[in-house]
Write a structure and sequence with these properties.
Layout lengths: L3 H19 L4 H8 L3 H10 L4
Helix pairs in contact: 1-2, 2-3
Length: 51
């Protein structure tokens, strides 16, 4: 069974991947789409070990 934290993190990772795919890997555009700063997106990507 997943905790709420696990579910939120899984959703967050999924949304980041979706945004990066939608914006042809442009981190600036993906961040804007997600309502994050570019630095905020990089921080989340580092947290989830995403490239």
């Amino acid at each position: 069974m997943f905790s709420l934290k696990d579910e939120v993190e899984a959703l967050e990772q999924s949304r980041i991947r979706e945004a990066l795919d939608r914006h042809a890997q442009s981190k600036q555009d993906a961040a804007q789409y997600l309502g994050l700063s570019r630095t905020g997106l990089y921080t989340k990507m580092k947290k989830y070990q995403m490239k």
